[in-house]
Write a structure and sequence with these properties.
Layout (H helix, E strand, L loop, with lengths): L25 H7 L6 H15 L14 H11 L13 H7 L7 E5 L16 H9 L7 E5 H4 L10 H5 L4 H5 L5
Antiparallel strand pairs: 1-2
Helix pairs in contact: 2-3
């Protein structure tokens, strides 16, 4: 069975006393059976696992159990993109921040000093990493582990509006099915 980053090391729910060492190079990562996934697939798989265990899916969100939460659950299962619209104080930010819990605890990345960003070890995008992989044996390709908390960041400068970043969005058009 393919492993996810959740298997390195055991999570808090695991009932085991053995410590599993995480792969430190590309060769060890391939031997471990780890499988690369898109973020949507990762969120989907972890959401399903939490649902099956009966975990609380959205802690701290109160009053939306019969309205918003079922729609978010369906969107996560279907792999949809989501846009949260509503008045101030309705929990949109809290809901968005709670989605981070559906990411793997850690995911591997190519730990190459010259890499412009954290790259998928099996499918690097930058020419720097592709060139490094072509010039080195798998045993010499270092793997780092990127923690969930470090993967998600909010970057909106004070005074900046969402519309300043992506342009104005007409909610009525969006509700009518017009694509952004």
């Amino acid at each position: 069975m393919p492993k996810s980053a959740l298997d390195f090391p055991p999570g808090p729910q695991a009932q085991t006393s053995t410590v599993v060492s995480k792969p430190s190079n590309l060769h060890e990562l391939r031997d471990s059976g780890w499988v690369s996934k898109s973020v949507k697939q990762e969120v989907h798989d972890n959401f399903l696992a939490m649902l099956a265990r009966g975990d609380e899916l959205f802690p701290g969100i109160i009053g939306y159990d019969d309205t918003v939460i079922p729609d978010i659950n369906l969107a996560l299962l279907a792999g949809h993109d989501m846009l949260f619209l509503g008045e101030k104080g309705q929990g949109k930010t809290r809901l968005m921040r709670s989605l981070v819990r559906f990411l793997d605890d850690e995911v591997p990345y190519l730990a190459i000093p010259e890499a412009p960003f954290h790259e998928d070890p099996y499918r690097p995008l930058s020419s720097v990493c592709r060139r490094f992989l072509a010039q080195h044996r798998e045993e010499d390709v270092p793997i780092g582990w990127w923690r969930r908390e470090e993967r998600y960041a909010e970057r909106l400068a004070p005074g900046t509006k969402f519309a300043d970043i992506i342009g104005e969005i007409d909610p009525a058009k969006l509700a009518g099915g017009v694509s952004m």
